[in-house]
Design brief:
5-stranded antiparallel β-sheet; alpha+beta; HIT family, subunit A; 3 helices
Length: 138
């Protein structure tokens, strides 16, 4: 198992407040929540970033994430939430193990706060980029 804090949680070395577990996925409450119900959802596979994760683990996460979101909504009563997943330290990833945050966003200011420095899409650049991405996907 991975030597990250999440690997230690998965192996039982570090305790947690478990929310969900199956063959591929484990979910638990964040120890430094941004709001009540802030839950972490991780694959049991020790991949550092989403692109390194197997298709099987990625599919399992995709099946479980909506269920976790529904449970967080049901328990907290908060219908607005963020699902956040960062890849690499430059993208604010603090633990080298794929993990998704499900963060309720109550109206009174708790939860995730983000900036979104959007810019116009250059159409010529977009055409070229989309062609290259399609080719990379095979």
């Amino acid at each position: 198992m991975s030597e990250t804090i999440f690997g230690k949680i998965l192996s039982g070395v570090i305790p947690c407040h478990k929310v969900y577990e199956d063959e591929h996925v484990f979910a638990f409450l964040d120890i430094n929540p941004l709001s009540t119900g802030h839950t972490l959802v991780i694959p049991k596979e020790p991949a550092k970033t989403l692109d390194a994760l197997s298709d099987e683990s990625a599919a399992a996460l995709g099946r479980v994430l909506p269920r976790i979101c529904r449970a967080v909504i049901a328990v907290t009563g908060v219908r607005e939430y963020n699902v956040l997943e960062n890849n690499g330290p430059g993208a604010h990833q603090a633990v080298d193990h794929v993990h998704f945050h499900v963060i309720p966003k109550p109206r009174h200011g708790e939860g995730l706060g983000i900036g979104w420095p959007a810019r116009p899409l250059d159409q010529q650049e977009a055409t070229h980029l989309a062609t290259k991405l399609r080719a990379a996907l095979g």
